Give the backbone structure.
Amino acid sequence: MTGYQETVVSTGLSEIHESKRRENARHTKPSAPPNLPLPAHGGALNIANMNGTTVRLHWTDQPYKWHVNDGEEVFAVMDGEVDMHYRENGEEHIVRLTSGDIFYAGVGTEHVAHPCGEARILVIEKEGSV
């Protein structure tokens, strides 16, 4: 597939989780202990590295920086709200993502996430991406 593709999907994450649980799949539900402060921007829990694809859980209340990944990125809001800004044909667009929403950024998609307060975000991307 060539060119820009942006997808926002509202998922039934609880249904997926329940299905995996029933299959006796190993799962981890990391959470920030309530007595610890929110990690600084860039603070993240490395969950997995699968042949050069990283899965990280970010806790942040700070905006990211505009960037273009050299690979595809899946950005899933686990908790909170995030305004995802992206550019298409030189025009900026903004979509509000809430818990359970997913943003897909194809190769070359310029984008930046702006959490609306504290947010927990699962990011799956090529190792070494911004």
The beta strands are 6-10, 44-50, 53-60, 67-68, 73-79, 81-88, 91-98, 101-105, 110-115, 119-126.
